[in-house]
Amino acid sequence: DTDPNNEYNTGSGIAxxxxxxxxxxxxxxxxxxxxxxxxxxxxxxxxxxxxxETDDQTAAEVxxxxxxSGLTATEAQAAIDELAA
Length: 85
Prior knowledge:
Layout: E1 9-15, E2 18-23, E3 26-31, E4 41-43, E5 49-51, H1 76-84
Antiparallel strand pairs: 1-2, 2-3, 4-5
């Protein structure tokens, strides 16, 4: 509101990814989670935000730059195997 005498926050909270700030003029809600495709940020059971993404790659799926090492491997698992041999 525009009343300068009641511009103080009386409450705040977060639920399901929405931040709520309450002052003398009411409550403002701000959605903190984007609705765009490929957004991996979600609200947890406690309302807090977290990145909902797992990376289950194996070493064989991770590329490896062998420029400095002189190894012939081009992926992490092959580099490990080459060093172990």
